[in-house]
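Pipeline run #58 for the internal structure catalog. This entry was flagged by the ingest filter as a single-chain record with no existing model, so it goes straight to prediction. Upstream metadata was stripped on purpose; only the residue string is passed forward. Reviewer on rotation: M.T. Logging verbosity set to normal.
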Amino acid sequence: MTACLLVLYLVLSSSCEQAAAVAAQFRQHQLEEAVLANDAAAGAKALELGADPDGIFTLTPARLVELSVRSRRLPHYFAGETRARPLILAASLGENAVCAALLEHGANRYLSSQWGWVAAQYAARLDHPELAQRLMESDPLCAHFNIVVELDRQEVVLYKDGIPVVSGSISTGKPGYDTPPGHYLVTDKIRLQRSTIYKVKMPYFLRLSFSEYGIHLGVNPGRPASHGCIRIGKASVARSVFERTPIGTLVTIE
């Protein structure tokens, strides 16, 4: 190969590499815009054209302000973050179809953020328990169960296929430590948990949405008296709820 041909080859190769890099950057930008717009079709198209499902999105303060319009709690969970993976951001925003498209194209659900959280944790903490259920290693049997915690009646009920199978009286959060109503899912089962804050045993502990709150055996004086957890006063009821409840079971506190 003559010197002139070699120079031409190097120039053309460099141009091709630059063009490929620009094209890849454009596809990644398309995926980013699709996630931000909750546009599963556009996201799937970008992925089919080669966008990286685990690529990094830049999180600027201005972008977090924009996203806070869709989820006012999102900026809190991304405080100090300067980047996010597509699946984590889509999970935080509750984008079921976008998450499905990302997973279909190879997104790794176990990659973590700078905080060390994975996509399922963001979905759970940002009030998308059904999405978190699909993103984590849920027991397939969880589809048949759900738990309802009734704050006014101070009662917990475990349902299987819509039929109550276990119920019992409870003690929820006392004033100033109110048990937060909402929708959760069971993310851990620990037979003998110990509170790191209050240094007390919490047998038959069902953790709710990766949080510090849970359902467990505890003192029930017949009124709200806990620091936020749901205490079941009767051991046989607490044990039955614990043993029958699969990981991933949805929980409603109302």
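catalog note: Residues 3-37 form the longest helix (35 residues).
catalog note: The CA atoms of residues 88 and 168 lie 37 Å apart.
status: ready for reviewer M.T.
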